[in-house]
Amino acid sequence: MASSAAAIVFSDSPFRSSPLIHTHHVSRYAPRSVSVSVVSPSRRASRRGLAVKSALIDPDGGKLMNLVVEESRRRVMKREAETVPIRIKLNRVDLEWVHVLSEGWASPLKGFMRQSEFLQTLHFNSFRLEDGSVVNMSVPIVLAIDDDQKFRIGDSNRVTLVDSVGNPIAILTDIEIYKHPKEERIARTWGTTARGLPYAEEAITKAGNWLIGGDLQVLEPIKYNDGLDRFRLSPSQLREEFIRRGADAVFAFQLRNPVHNGHALLMTDTRRRLLEMGYKNPVLLLNPLGGFTKADDVPLSWRMRQHEKVLEDGVLDPETTVVSIFPSPMLYAGPTEVQWHAKARINAGANFYIVGRDPAGMGHPTENRDLYDADHGKKVLSMAPGLERLNILPFKVAAYDKTQGKMAFFDPSRSQDFLFISGTKMRGLAKKKENPPDGFMCPSGWKVLVDYYDSLSAESGNGRVSEAVASA
């Protein structure tokens, strides 16, 4: 499973220690906003020898969606939102998907999926555009409503989406309501309907029996006011930063865990390989997942503190690393979900994607085994429809080399020299305030992890609720 070993190559990444601001619905694919010209070498080309390009990869569909209302129109649109009679309250995961859609991570989608998009996503992991081209889309981005809400909407063609306290967030227009096939959705996304799938239990099984799709007009940029908004760079902002830095290649690494030196080895070795290919300034996008995660994952706020220490200690070079939060919820859907993770990074400007063992995986919820084959994620990415432009970088497993006192790529010819530190063992050491072997993680980063588990003990002793599920 994805968290089972420190040796695992995760399929995620980006970060920086200071803020950067430094069916009749074909029209939904007529995007507005940022267009960035570029062609990335295809995987087939990469096997022949890459032709080095110096521009960023095009977003899916050719243009990057920006569904946030222009600042000059926000006051008018907010007044309009107040006049729409039907309001749909968003839960936490719904709001995260609004965030994802609003910034163009799911380009060329212009809102929550209508039925044609939902079915293509569910059955083909992609959908076809007006010009006949295919873009990858492997996870449904949908909004559920219940029977009473469906009745109240009636023949209306738009609704206002509000947050938990009733503040208008967006207007959903040209709406379409259709049945929510929960069992089919779960079975096709996870390959099982077993009880205990974290995202399914959070966002599907208790959700309404209907789905509502339509075009989104988001009233203002989504903010969480949690001290981390400075790290939440949109795909457009990321592209601007990559251009500012003169990047001629962007390689993405996503993770939902603290960064140890095995991860750092993968990232630094990737840059070395790209330099050897002829690129002059490859830039790393360290892109930790910032949406919903299961309760035993380390919360986002603590992970970001740990990532900052990794940069401060020079484990990763701040000059060639951009750290930014990816706002998507985590589904733990293995080979299906890793396609979404890769596709979203294309829209952010990445033309290389690091993937390793069991990306987006988890243990089976009812059996003592991993839910997915550890090699299927990287194999699926190499064949996935709509991801042909993305260069997939599979890696060997990294483990702790006892002879060198550091993380290194595993050498099966001397397997006795390597120590595999599982996620369970890492958490156990941190909870007991014990240190891992020197060279496993930078000391200041390890201290953040120890402090997190120490805070859980203190909260438990005080009868307080842990923030472990508050990851966004």
TrEMBL record:
Known pathway: Sulfur metabolism; hydrogen sulfide biosynthesis; sulfite from sulfate: step 1/3
UniProt keyword tRNA processing, yes or no: no
UniProt domain ATP-sulfurylase PUA-like: residue ranges: 57-220
Predominant location: plastid
GO cellular component: chloroplast
Localization in the cell: Plastid, Chloroplast
Gene Ontology terms, MF aspect: adenylylsulfate kinase activity; ATP binding; sulfate adenylyltransferase (ATP) activity
The entry's keywords: ATP-binding, Chloroplast, Nucleotide-binding, Nucleotidyltransferase, Plastid, Transferase, Transit peptide
Biological processes annotated in GO: sulfate assimilation
Domain Sulphate adenylyltransferase catalytic as annotated: residue spans: 230-451
PANTHER family: ATP SULFURYLASE 4, CHLOROPLASTIC (PTHR11055:SF39), BIFUNCTIONAL 3'-PHOSPHOADENOSINE 5'-PHOSPHOSULFATE SYNTHASE (PTHR11055)
Family in the record: Belongs to the sulfate adenylyltransferase family.
NCBIfam families, sorted: sopT
Complexes and interactors: Homotetramer.
The protein's name in its UniProt record: sulfate adenylyltransferase
Organism field: Arabidopsis lyrata subsp. lyrata (Lyre-leaved rock-cress)
